[in-house]
């Protein structure tokens, strides 16, 4: 049916262009959106908080192209590969839009033989997923990634990634949150002791990954029905995945008769204990939950995995409750760079990705609810005139101000009315008006009006720049 | 041949993936590149200058998706349309990567019925052109656009666009430059009085556009040979297009017996005169050249057009001279928004686009030549230890610093050598080291080392944050 609909839509689109220029649909592509000035102001606020955190942790920044060779992305995303956008073959290389920033990062490391770097990268990624835009799920969306690559002592960089998530979510004041933590090695050990055959580890892991969206019963029936797992194995998994806690749970599992006999599980649990010790030193264990149901969808994780979830705030807003969810995730991927190296040389990596769209949705809704009027420009002064025929004088003055680094605007009219000029300041939040008039020109002064108080003072022209600087220094 | 080569390359790529994981080519797509930390530091410097200029002129900022419906781009770019990247038809809408930021801007205005806005937009655009990467010509590249949309009095916004180009190129200290200015109406009038048939205006305009790359003789033979223009008409064009100057040339052409009889040419010349009056008030006519050979390739311009060119610096650098060229361009496009409006309602627009890649090339080469060591992080302090077994103390201290907003790093080793820690500071330019040791812990102090002077002072732990702030406040 979807194919048929697509065909019909396409035919309709073609008809549209045949019928004439003005018949096409005026929209952005499905699952994408424009950011107008207001949305950009919110977006830049969020980015500022995130970037300043990444810089506080000493990260460098890199950028990579929006598309990669198709083969660079092949075999990295498991079941999600079908969501990759391909470019049309127009001759030359076969290309795909990036699906995340992690695979391009690994490609960058291998290509430049970099074995040691701490970097952030903020850019858009592309997934042909089913969009749910009111809940902040788009086909084009930003990821804010921070990764540490290099051979280091266990869990020190991993702990820093969690500290970063904690800092950013606290800083953005998004309400209460919890960071779930698990380890692929613990999951694999758990699958082994539950009797899952090796060959089914990844696919059963994908089923577990759905537990944050669907109830256990459904996941169980997918495991047994679609994936052919024995009911007994599924039930044993069912018991483990309801466990979550802190250091106590780690200790309990280290004593677990089955898990403690499994080599990888034991390694994972040992590292998890170390991680919690470091997180205790950072003072953030209060928001961390060791959760055996956390699996993460992507294939490339090899160790610690984590995901930050915003907790629903009851009755805080009167509107319908926001459907929140995962806002950050990440983990350790020690094998990915080696997949790009001719000799398979590995570069261990751990990183975190902040999913900013959901955060935008929340910040936008909050701003909507509040009375705060957000400014979309930083203009300090409007250059205005009180009488007609003063365009030249306005141009001369505004040019002086620009050259002195003052943020200034004027209306693009020959003879604007003073009222319209003052109104423009009210609407856009410009705090000052520099008014030129015949008398002021004769006297070598400019009348400076403070919009908020309607106070007016004459300022000597040569002192105007300094006066504007002083009066807007708190902005 | 190109097709055959593409086929062969494709077969080779397929063979590659069949032969095993490690056989693929490790590269970015043709005409694209990664930005490493150093390149990013340069890029962010350039962006900072550009954005602060746009904000100084009161612009808001918007963003649009990287792809648009294919039909949104159709019929906007004339001969260049073949360079558009299409996405593969994977079901659903037919999409193309944006070719510039102007058409998406016009689509945005029409879609949201905005008739009045001053905005900037900095983003990557995509052209399947022949890359010449050493000269800064890429298939994926940034454009920094500033546009003013709305019905205003003539040439006031147009003059501001030129002022902006002047400010940015001066601010970036790229050496001497000239901004060529012309008007599509003057060109059209000139074509008319030279005897070019109406139907050939756009294609002859495309030929004139090549004059900055190829000599007149070649352009003439294209006009006459390929495009079927009469030799007499071509020769008359040839006389006009060698003219360039300032107000005097405008006055001269206003007296030109043919041009002065042509309605559109007269309008264009009248506005050009007004523009020069405004530019005189801005004090920037010294860098402006009214140049009849400037045509601009894109179809959508309707009035003033302009292009900024860097002038070759003789013998300033000892290396081979940099091949410089156009670094900014723009003009008036009063019809574009109307093409997206069902009722054809027009929104007059004028704007400028800064082509940043060439500017990057120059800044990169200059930095290479200079001795300046560019820092790629902003880290203020490295948290180090003088003895073994102090990992926990380092973690505790760095966490305190992060929480206080200090930019701090530590080595991810349990027991790093002090020498290695100091060396890391030298390499990365970190100015301070906070050293914890047994004795310092007992005394409740931290040893603060100033890397540049090797001076060391004991600072009480509770004063450390303040001390670091003071000592790095000049950074």
Automatic annotation (TrEMBL), chains A, B:
Annotated catalysed reactions: tRNA(His) + L-histidine + ATP = L-histidyl-tRNA(His) + AMP + diphosphate + H(+)
Biological process per Gene Ontology, one example term: mitochondrial translation
Keyword check for Ion transport: no
UniProt-annotated binding residues for L-histidine: 100-102, 127, 143, 147, 296, 300-301
EC number: 6.1.1.21
Record InterPro entries: aa-tRNA-synth_II, aa-tRNA-synth_II/BPL/LPL, Anticodon-bd, Anticodon-bd_dom_sf, His-tRNA-ligase, HisRS-like_core, HisRS/HisZ, HisRS_anticodon
PROSITE patterns according to UniProt: AA_TRNA_LIGASE_II
Enzyme class: ligase
An MF annotation (GO) of this entry: histidine-tRNA ligase activity
SUPFAM superfamilies: Class II aaRS ABD-related, Class II aaRS and biotin synthetases
Gene3D superfamilies per record: Anticodon-binding domain, Bira Bifunctional Protein, Domain 2
All residue ranges annotated as the Aminoacyl-transfer RNA synthetases class-II family profile domain in the record: 31-363
Keywords, sorted A to Z: Aminoacyl-tRNA synthetase, ATP-binding, Ligase, Nucleotide-binding, Protein biosynthesis
GO cellular component: cytosol; mitochondrion
Alphabetized PANTHER family for the sequence: HISTIDINE--TRNA LIGASE (PTHR11476:SF7), HISTIDYL-TRNA SYNTHETASE (PTHR11476)
NCBIfam families named in the record: hisS
Family, as annotated: Belongs to the class-II aminoacyl-tRNA synthetase family.
Entry protein name: histidine--tRNA ligase
Gene this protein is translated from: Hars_0
């Amino acid at each position: 049916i979807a194919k048929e609909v697509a065909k019909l839509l396409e035919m309709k689109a073609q008809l549209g262009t045949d019928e004439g220029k003005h018949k096409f649909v005026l929209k952005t592509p499905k699952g994408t959106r424009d950011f107008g000035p207001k949305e950009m102001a919110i977006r830049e606020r969020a980015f500022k908080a995130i970037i300043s955190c990444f810089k506080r942790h000493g990260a460098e920044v890199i950028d990579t192209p929006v598309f990669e060779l198709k083969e660079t992305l092949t075999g990295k995303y498991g079941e999600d590969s079908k969501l990759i956008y391909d470019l049309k073959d127009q001759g030359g290389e076969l290309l795909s839009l990036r699906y995340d920033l992690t695979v391009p990062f690994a490609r960058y490391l291998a290509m430049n033989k970099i074995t040691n770097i701490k970097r952030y990268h903020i850019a858009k990624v592309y997934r042909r997923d089913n969009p749910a835009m009111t809940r902040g799920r788009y086909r084009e969306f930003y990821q804010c990634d921070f990764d540490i690559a290099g051979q280091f002592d266990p869990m020190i960089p991993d702990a820093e990634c969690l500290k970063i998530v904690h800092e950013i979510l606290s800083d953005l004041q998004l309400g209460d949150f919890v960071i779930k933590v698990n380890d692929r090695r613990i999951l694999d050990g758990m699958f082994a002791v539950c009797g899952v055959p090796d060959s089914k580890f990844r696919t059963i892991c994908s089923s577990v990954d759905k537990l944050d969206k669907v109830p256990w019963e459904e996941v169980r029936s997918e495991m047994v029905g679609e994936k052919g797992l024995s009911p007994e194995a599924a039930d044993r998994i069912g018991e483990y995945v309801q466990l979550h806690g802190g250091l106590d749970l780690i200790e309990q599992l280290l004593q677990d008769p089955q898990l403690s006999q499994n080599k990888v599980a034991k390694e994972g649990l040992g590292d998890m204990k170390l991680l919690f010790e470091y997180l205790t030193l950072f003072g953030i264990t209060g928001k961390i939950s060791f959760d055996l149901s956390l699996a993460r969808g992507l294939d490339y994780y090899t160790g610690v995995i984590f995901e930050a979830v915003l907790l629903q705030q009851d009755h805080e807003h009167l509107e319908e409750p926001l459907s929140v969810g995962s806002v950050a995730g990440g983990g350790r991927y020690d094998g990915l760079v080696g997949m790009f190296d001719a000799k398979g040389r590995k570069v261990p990596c751990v990183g975190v990705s902040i999913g900013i769209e959901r955060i935008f949705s929340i910040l936008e809704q909050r701003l909507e609810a509040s009375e705060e009027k957000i400014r979309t420009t930083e203009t300090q002064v409007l250059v205005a005139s009180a009488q007609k025929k003063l365009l030249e004088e306005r141009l001369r003055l505004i040019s002086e101000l620009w050259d002195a680094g003052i943020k200034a605007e004027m209306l693009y009219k020959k003879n604007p009315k003073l009222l319209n000029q003052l109104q423009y300041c009210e609407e856009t939040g410009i705090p000052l008006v520099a008014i030129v008039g015949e008398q002021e020109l004769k006297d070598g002064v400019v009348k400076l009006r403070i919009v908020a108080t309607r106070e007016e003072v004459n300022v000597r022209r040569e002192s105007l720049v300094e006066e504007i600087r002083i009066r807007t220094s708190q902005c």
